[in-house]
């Protein structure tokens, strides 16, 4: 027996102009209508689940119609929830309380504001730790000039101003001179004096981030210049020897540069370039770093050894790479084996 009564079929038939529908025909059509309804509802539930929702909507039913190549139901849909009212004199009978809308009110109503066109703009959030004073950035500086105050959900939040790393004029001149000697006068006596100064002076700690950034930036772009690479490695050795410099926070920037000079595929342009001594020097630097900071970073030596072992065992690596890996493993000592 169908859940769709034959009386409902007769009412639907009358609504489309069929006034005299046989009861037997209505009873025969009812199971087919039930089957189609179940089919549409199953497809609508699939659409709901694929949309990761738990409430079935009219859009799901329309999507089910489209999947079954059935013409969708045309009409006006509203985002407001349906309001049901109890029918007078009936306890379990409800109807939808539909509000009558006057066309005059709709026509006379003001038009909504047009939405803004989608656009993407770029601006600086901060430049060298300082927030630019532009309209895109918040500019709620406190009266004391030391804090920003933002309002988020009505709760005041104090945020400290970013601190700009400032070095003295003397240190700036010193750093510029170190760069000049490293890049163009690495074979001069003055460069040797600069290395000695880097290894002994006690007031150079503010320059460490600048020196490490300079080294890590120059090495990848100058792998063909053996003298410059040698000079950069000597600068690393000097700052490692300085007892007044706390170099540990910058090891993650220095180690890739040293490893690059040790096991990179090619150093220099000509075959006569003596990159072997550079690899030997880099191997000694790697060993000294692991020996000095191995107690603070327990996995430092194991990670370096794993990198060198991978370069040594890879048959696709070149002979200079295998040489650098062997020299690095040998410099680490017998404990690596």
Automatic annotation (TrEMBL):
Gene3D superfamilies given for it?
Histone, subunit A, TAF6, C-terminal HEAT repeat domain
Please give the GO cellular component terms listed in this UniProt entry.
SAGA complex; SLIK (SAGA-like) complex; transcription factor TFIID complex
Where is this protein primarily located?
nucleus
Keywords, in A-Z order: Nucleus, Transcription, Transcription regulation
Q: Name one GO biological process term.
A: RNA polymerase II preinitiation complex assembly
Q: Which residues form a coiled coil?
A: none
Q: Which residues cross the membrane?
A: none
Q: Where is the TATA box binding protein associated factor (TAF) histone-like fold domain?
A: 2-68
What InterPro entries does its record include? ARM-type_fold, Histone-fold, TAF6, TAF6_C, TAF6_C_sf, TAF_TATA-bd_Histone-like_dom
Say if the entry is tagged with keyword Transcription regulation: yes
The Gene Ontology terms for molecular function here are: protein heterodimerization activity; RNA polymerase II general transcription initiation factor activity; transcription coactivator activity
Query: Where is this protein found?
Result: Nucleus
Keyword Nucleus recorded? yes
Pfam assignment, any one:
TAF6_C
Family stated for the protein in its record:
Belongs to the TAF6 family.
- Protein name, please? TATA box binding protein associated factor (TAF) histone-like fold domain-containing protein
Q: Which organism is it from?
A: Punica granatum (Pomegranate)
């Amino acid at each position: 027996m169908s859940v769709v009564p034959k009386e409902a079929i007769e009412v639907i038939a009358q609504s489309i102009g069929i006034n005299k529908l046989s009861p037997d025909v209505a009873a025969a059509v009812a199971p087919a209508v039930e089957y189609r309804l179940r089919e549409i509802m199953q497809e609508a539930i699939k659409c709901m689940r694929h949309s990761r929702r738990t409430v079935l909507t009219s859009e799901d039913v329309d999507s089910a119609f489209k999947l079954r190549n059935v013409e969708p139901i045309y009409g006006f849909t509203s985002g407001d929830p349906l309001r049901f009212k109890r029918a007078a004199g009936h306890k379990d009978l409800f109807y939808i309380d539909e509000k009558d809308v006057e066309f005059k009110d709709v026509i006379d109503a003001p038009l909504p504001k047009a939405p803004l066109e989608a656009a993407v703009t770029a601006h600086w959030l901060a430049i060298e730790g300082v927030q630019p004073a532009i309209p895109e950035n918040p500019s709620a500086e406190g009266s004391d000039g030391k804090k920003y105050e933002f309002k988020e959900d009505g709760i005041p939040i104090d945020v400290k101003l970013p601190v700009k790393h400032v070095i003295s004029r003397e240190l700036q001149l010193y750093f510029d001179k170190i760069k000049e000697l490293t890049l163009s006068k690495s074979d001069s006596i003055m460069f040797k004096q600069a290395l000695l100064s880097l290894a002994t002076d006690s007031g150079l700690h503010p320059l460490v981030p600048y020196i490490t950034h300079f080294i890590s930036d120059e090495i990848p772009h100058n792998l063909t210049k053996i003298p410059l690479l040698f000079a950069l490695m000597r600068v690393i050795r000097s700052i490692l020897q300085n007892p007044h410099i706390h170099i540990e926070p910058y090891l993650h920037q220095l180690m890739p540069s040293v490893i690059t000079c040790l096991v990179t595929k090619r150093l220099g342009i000509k075959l006569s370039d003596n990159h072997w001594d550079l690899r030997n020097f880099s191997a000694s630097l790697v060993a000294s770093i692991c020996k000095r900071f191995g107690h603070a970073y327990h996995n430092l030596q194991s990670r370096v050894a794993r990198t060198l072992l991978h370069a040594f065992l890879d048959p696709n690596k070149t002979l200079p790479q295998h040489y650098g890996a062997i020299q690095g493993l040998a410099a680490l000592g017998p404990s690596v084996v």
